[in-house]
Amino acid sequence: MASAELITASQHILDQQRLHHPTASGEFSLLLSGVTLACKMIAAEVRRLGLTGLPGGTGNVNVQGEEQQGLDVFANNALLHTLGHRGIVGVLASEENEDPIVVLKDPKHGKYVVIFDPLDGSSNIDVNVSVGTIFSIFRRDINNGDKPADDVLQMGHQQIAAGYVLYGSSTMLVYTTGDGVFGFTLDPSIGAFVLSHPKIKMPDRGSTYSVNEAYADSFPPFCRRFLHWVKSGEDDIAYKSRYIGSLVADFHRTLLKGGIFLYPPTASYHEGKLRLLYEANPIAMIAEQAGGVATTGHERILDIEPSGLHQRTPFYIGSAREVELIGRFHEGEGPG
Ligand code: AHM
Ligand code: MG
Fold it and tell me: Averaged over 106-125, what is the pLDDT?
């Protein structure tokens, strides 16, 4: 690779800041470098998994009632540590902690809120399937005064940045600060995320649908009708199905190749399984920034007023054409 072409994530973040916020203090860049540092630590552990024996249940159960995996705990601690000690983050919140953690009460110092899912798809750890880290960043809400923990309850469209790291066949960082989506691949030989996917655009339509069809009998009728239609052969696209069971991996494929990912309400999860604040919102911001769409079937994900840190939402995300189609099925119309 020609050295002039090598742009690292830290360089890119600084360049973006200089371009769009020339008077910025550099604190935001410092924050994002905390995220990338933690994710490099997590990537290193993921790569060593088969050797170190970290995977497997810890016997503890998290706030979702799910058994915590050893790597879940490692990933959570890595993010809490790298973000909690930089003097810029006021509030941290994680899938693994019941309540937000107020690091710096005064919003003048701790300007930012970071919400994350430290290790998404962790039920796949033991079988060497891709997992990911998802993060969402807000500015503190200065109106919350005495209740800084409520700063996490902002609408998705107020996010100032969002991203994920996919620990797949390579490790990739994908992030947006509201000016397009950029992808970086970790070069393990130099320990840096290198720009590999500038200005990612999601195809306007795609040929893949991604859903856990084992639960189809309990999906809402409009969703069953949509699935019936994609399999009917009536469209000019021959749809195929792909489902990994790791949101970051299933979304990453959808981002690059197009199509739709669905997690509708089911008999076990009446609001769908995925969490609004640290799964749906950040992934939805990336989708929209890449030209895609993310809804609950009828409402834009980024416009949902949150009421709780761990609340769930139905989630339909992907190419504009397929997600708009599911909206039409929701309204009782067909593809026509
Ligand atoms: P997790 O945060 O506990 O790992 O759960 C979220 C994961 C997502 O990555 C994935 O999309 C979904 O759960 C898969 O659920 P299911 O096994 O019901 O298909
Ligand atoms: Mg998760």
Answer: 90
